[in-house]
Amino acid sequence: MPAIPLPFVIALLLLLLTAVISYRQEANLKPKVIFLLSCTCLVVITGLRWIQTIAAIHWLQPIAAACIPPATWYCFALMQQTRLSLWHLSGPLLTLLLLLFRSFWHVPLDILLFGLYTGYGFAVLRILFRNELTLQRVRFSDLDHVNKAAGFAGTLLVFSALIDGLIALDLVGSGGRHTMVILTTAQLLLLPLLSIAVITSSHAVVIDSGEDLAEPGQSKEPDSQENQNIATLIDHLIRQQQLFLDPDLTLNRLARKAGIPARQISAAMNAVHGRNISQLINEYRIEWAKRLLTTTQDPITQIYLASGFQTKSNFNREFSRITNTTPSDYRRSVST
Q1: Transmembrane region positions (predicted)?
Q2: pLDDT value at residue 29
Q3: Helices (DSSP H) in 203-276: which residue ranges?
């Protein structure tokens, strides 16, 4: 029975994943498909280099590799904005130009790839150190999950840059004797992991119909009274319309309902309450869950879903943070 090289097995799995996502017509389909197809092309080209000596394959591999960082960024950028600047195509295009004019101007492609993977890796990692404005299109209940996925994806991109540096050292030290082994092993390990991080995080993005509210231009900082007015309005809106029960609630959706730009809402809630908006939304949900725990005999699984949470782990973590007890212990304590 003929053996199938491992790169083609992984490429087949990535294609199956692309087909499943396309068949389900999931939200944010375009960036997922672009990313998965970029990974598939790179894995296939890597596999072909093992069994073929076609010169075109040596050209295609660095171009395909240069597409991975912007494709990864595209998936995470959708959490804040709806369009990707065409400037993000400059990396693959510059790689192509360097290949075309290699005989006249020899610049090591490893340096370019190192810069691309490092730059985009740290750009994704920035999500961990910014407030919820960076993720204003993400469900409040999924913010922690997306932060972890961004940290994982950013770390993988930076690690890929280190691999490119290791390949450059191998080219200098041993004439590239170990380059193919290093490159293939790294790609076969990193691309599936990167795919998992990107695809799982993109499920948390909610695409609403309609345009986002325009952010105001440069203006003076709102005073404490203005922040208090915004916080009071948001609190009234959330309670009156029970927006916290919507599991798909995002900062963008809340801003549109309130008619106030997301940046002003975030700043006001932080200034008045000393906590970010996602923590406050979870507090509304826990307050509702406590009422259900004391007035009904519904199972906890049904209660956390009815309170706007999507996972039991997130519900238990937030319940414990706010009440310093578990849902089961809370129900027992109020019933005795």
Answers
A1: 32-51, 86-105, 111-129, 149-169, 181-199
A2: 72
A3: 224-241, 251-258, 262-273
Which of 282, 278, 304 lies closest to 135 in space, CA to CA?
Answer: 278
Distance in angstroms (rounded) separating the CA atoms of residues 78 and 204: 11
Rounded to an integer, what distance in angstroms lies between the CA atom of residue 60 and that of residue 249?
42
Distance CA 235, CA 272 (A): 11
Q: 34, 35, 97: which is closest to 63 by C-alpha?
A: 97
- DSSP letters spanning 122-149: HHHHGGGGS-GGGGTTB-GGGHHHHHHH
Q: Measured between alpha carbons, how far is residue 118 from residues 7, 186, 194, 315 in Å?
A: 24, 16, 15, 36
Main-chain phi, psi angles of 206, to 5 degrees: -110, 120
**Alpha-carbon separation of residue 4 from 74, 87, 261, 282 (angstroms):** 32, 38, 54, 49
Pick the CATH number of 224-335 from 1.20.1250.20, 2.115.10.20, 3.40.50.300, 1.10.10.60: 1.10.10.60
pLDDT (average), residues 264-279: 87
What pLDDT, in 10s, does the model give residues 179-226?
777 777 787 788 888 888 887 776 666 555 555 555 555 455 666 888
What is the C-alpha to C-alpha distance for residues 237 and 233, in angstroms, rounded to an integer? 6
pLDDT digits 0-9 by tens, 52-79 = 667 677 788 888 889 999 988 888 877 7
User: Which one is the CATH code of 6-202: 3.30.1490, 1.20.1070, 1.20.120, 1.10.10?
Assistant: 1.20.1070
Sole residue written with tokens 């706010």: 322
Amino acid in position 124: V
**In terms of residues, how long is the chain?**
336
Torsion-angle region of residue 25: left (phi > 0), alpha (psi -120 to 50) or beta? Answer: left
